[in-house]
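Progress note, sequence design subtask.
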């Protein structure tokens, strides 16, 4: 079903969800088993408690262990700082496995979202050397875009020349979304052949708000004709970093929903299945042509490992026909996954093993070859310490 919904305060209406994403009702943030606004234990809350002195964006990224080569740039007015954002002044996103940072030149503070093992995404504003919890972020960051829990997401809209999104046609994107629907309102540097997308483009004619001027805007190695890149930590907006962030955001949201459901009292079988499907890239939109990034992210991200005895990692990119070489989400190593209640985590492990061991031969996993399943099992056996005994 195609559902349209208002992202309040984000100046965008997103119609429909990422391919195969199903509407989920919001789970209650004030439930006594959740206490979202009362409890937090993540990299940002620990930094704040330690009183670490931070005086700049570079210093903040160092403190959060974020590599600036993860930079992706969004110019649509889809943040609470929308008045500061435009095609001439895009917002920069930086991230790692644990936290994401949003910075706008001339903005009112820096947005920080930390992946909390129990609470999911927790949002802060960093200003004048201090982190403050932000409740306003949930106006955008809890709802259909995030499977009903506080979370992050990547959206794709039809922006006009000022970066204002058209009121219809926006979607949430992840690895399941066709290239042609991705990255409206984003800048993207890449070599990606003739695969069309919405990036680097605006709709110049108000009478045709979904007619993007895309001619000459693909396969760009520089963004200098759109804005002044020297004002940013990196001069590019890397496609591989953005594709990785897309995958990671929704994976974290699925795991957070399972955690919250368990603590509230009931985990839906359909939600376990949805998380496992996503983990195994069951409905990944295939790459028609190879993709090549323009920053060091393609190297530095896999270097973070872990690796098995044969030197393989779930972080290894493919970028020829799919995003990752070994299609099981690296988010399985995250504290968010490890913090799942034991019974829920066991259900997820059980379904993953059924697929990898060929007990589940259903069509939705048909693109996982014998070699894929064998390699993923071997990687997990060498690198995931909490793996159930039957995996071995």
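Output:
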């Amino acid at each position: 079903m195609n559902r349209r919904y208002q992202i309040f305060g984000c100046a965008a209406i997103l119609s429909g969800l990422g391919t195969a994403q199903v509407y989920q009702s919001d789970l209650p943030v004030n439930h006594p088993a959740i206490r979202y606004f009362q409890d937090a234990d993540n990299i940002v809350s620990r930094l704040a408690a330690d009183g670490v002195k931070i005086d700049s964006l570079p210093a903040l990224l160092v403190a959060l262990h974020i590599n600036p080569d993860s930079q992706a740039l969004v110019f649509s007015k889809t943040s609470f700082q929308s008045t500061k954002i435009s095609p001439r002044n895009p917002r920069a996103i930086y991230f790692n496995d644990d936290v994401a940072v949003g910075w706008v030149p001339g903005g009112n503070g820096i947005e920080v979202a930390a992946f909390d093992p129990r609470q999911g995404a927790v949002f802060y504003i960093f200003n004048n050397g201090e982190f403050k919890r932000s409740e306003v972020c949930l106006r955008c960051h809890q709802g259909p875009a995030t499977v009903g829990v506080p979370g992050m997401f990547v959206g794709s809209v039809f922006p006009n020349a000022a970066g204002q999104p058209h009121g219809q046609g926006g979607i949430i994107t992840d690895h399941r979304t066709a290239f042609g629907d991705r990255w409206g309102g984003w800048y993207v540097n890449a070599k990606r052949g003739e695969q069309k997308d919405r990036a680097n483009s605006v709709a110049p004619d108000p009478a045709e708000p979904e007619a993007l001027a895309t001619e000459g805007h693909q396969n760009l190695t520089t963004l200098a004709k759109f804005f002044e890149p020297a004002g940013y930590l990196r001069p590019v907006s890397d496609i591989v970093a953005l594709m990785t962030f897309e995958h990671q955001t929704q994976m974290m949201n699925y795991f957070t929903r399972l955690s919250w459901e368990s603590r509230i009292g009931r985990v839906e079988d359909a939600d376990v299945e949805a998380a496992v499907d996503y983990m195994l890239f069951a409905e990944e939109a295939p790459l028609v042509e190879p993709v090549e990034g323009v920053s060091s992210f393609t190297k530095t991200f896999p270097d973070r490992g872990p690796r098995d005895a044969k030197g393989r990692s779930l972080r290894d990119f493919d970028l020829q026909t799919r995003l990752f070489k070994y299609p099981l989400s690296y988010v399985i190593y995250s504290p968010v996954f490890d913090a799942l209640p034991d019974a829920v985590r066991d259900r997820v492990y059980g379904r993953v093993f059924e697929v990898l061991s060929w007990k589940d031969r259903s069509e939705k996993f048909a693109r996982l070859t014998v070699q894929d399943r064998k390699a993923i099992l071997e990687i997990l056996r060498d690198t995931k310490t909490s793996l159930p005994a039957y995996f071995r």
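Residues 252-391 form one domain. Work on this subtask will continue into the next period as scheduled.
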